[in-house]
Automatic annotation (TrEMBL):
<dbReference type="InterPro" id="IPR000092">
    <property type="entry name" value="Polyprenyl_synt"/>
</dbReference>
<feature type="region of interest" description="Disordered">
    <location>
        <begin position="237"/>
        <end position="257"/>
    </location>
</feature>
<keyword id="KW-0808">Transferase</keyword>
<dbReference type="GO" id="GO:0008299">
    <property type="term" value="P:isoprenoid biosynthetic process"/>
</dbReference>
<dbReference type="GO" id="GO:0004659">
    <property type="term" value="F:prenyltransferase activity"/>
</dbReference>
<dbReference type="InterPro" id="IPR008949">
    <property type="entry name" value="Isoprenoid_synthase_dom_sf"/>
</dbReference>
<dbReference type="Pfam" id="PF00348">
    <property type="entry name" value="polyprenyl_synt"/>
</dbReference>
<protein>
    <submittedName>
        <fullName>Farnesyl-diphosphate synthase</fullName>
    </submittedName>
</protein>
<comment type="similarity">
    <text>Belongs to the FPP/GGPP synthase family.</text>
</comment>
<keyword id="KW-0479">Metal-binding</keyword>
<keyword id="KW-0460">Magnesium</keyword>
<dbReference type="InterPro" id="IPR033749">
    <property type="entry name" value="Polyprenyl_synt_CS"/>
</dbReference>
<dbReference type="GO" id="GO:0046872">
    <property type="term" value="F:metal ion binding"/>
</dbReference>
């Protein structure tokens, strides 16, 4: 765990430095509230681990890692407004803490800081831009035509959750100056991990309590949100099996990469296993 903690600490330090430079102070307070109130930091960890697994150094990937975490947090602000969720990571959601207008501005501020970090590399800009198109289309799909079957659910999960995971991994490969085939392979791995992550999220929403989750539980059913459990009427056990299948597919994609065995590669495999057994 010390191995991962050192890398997360490096990301956290850089994240705090980026947010400390935000002006004016009111905006800085809002973006810090959003981005520094906790979180698993899964996406930035993927960025750093992929970079290392492919021969790069953690320092090569830190700015991209922070950038993808900022994009993720910006999207959560909007999600909470749409869902009217008052709690995020055990703290008041941005709109609840500051109001709708300041929350939207905070989301914009996070995106601005993120793209400033990506602007040093054309491939990074393209990767993140494509993922945000997918994310936006996923949000629109959910609002105008909720999925009514498993196939439609999977497409939504790929866009809303898988796309940012894919970008996180591809950014790590880009930071390591990998070839296009490798960038694509790690992207496929991470997209599958992201979809499995979302499936497990749906199961937890149906089975866990708010204190454990750090956010309201049972909101999928209450809001008729298209979770895997609600859309398909699968049992939670069957939904977990679907998540496991995505995890297995992620591991298969990872196995196609021509990279030496390393601690970072081991942790990437562990992540694919962890996302389907996590409790929050």
């Amino acid at each position: 765990m010390e191995y991962l903690e050192r890398r997360r600490d490096r990301v956290e330090e850089r994240l705090e430095a980026v947010l400390d430079s935000v002006e004016p102070e009111e905006l800085a307070d809002e973006v810090r509230h959003v981005a520094l109130s906790g979180g698993k930091r899964v996406r930035p960890t993927v960025t750093v681990l992929v970079c290392e697994a492919l021969g790069g150094e953690p320092a090569d990937a830190v700015d991209f890692a922070v950038g993808i975490e900022l994009v993720h947090n910006a999207s959560l602000v909007i999600d909470d407004i749409i869902d009217e969720s008052e709690l995020r990571r055990g703290s008041p959601a941005a709109w609840e803490a500051f109001g709708h207008g300041p929350a939207i501005i905070a989301s914009d501020g996070l995106l601005g800081e993120a793209f400033n970090l990506f602007s040093t590399d054309e491939r990074a800009m393209q990767t993140v831009s494509e993922s945000m198109v997918e994310l936006g289309e996923g949000e629109a799909m959910e609002l105008v035509a909720e999925p009514s079957n498993e196939k439609e659910y999977m497409e939504l999960a790929r866009r809303k959750t898988g796309a940012l995971f894919r970008a996180a991994a591809e950014l790590g490969a880009i930071a390591a100056d990998s070839d296009p085939y490798t960038v694509e392979a790690v992207g496929q791995y991470a997209e599958r991990v992201g979809v499995a992550f979302q499936m497990r999220d749906d199961v937890l929403d149906a089975t866990a309590d708010a204190e454990t989750l750090g956010k309201p539980a049972g909101t999928d059913a209450e809001m008729e949100r298209p979770s895997l459990v609600e859309v398909t009427e699968l049992t939670t056990e069957e939904a977990n099996e679907r998540a496991r299948a995505e995890s297995d597919a992620a591991l298969e994609s990872l196995s196609t990469i021509d990279a030496p065995e390393s601690q970072s590669m081991e942790y990437l495999r562990d992540l694919a296993e962890f996302v389907v057994v996590r409790e929050r």
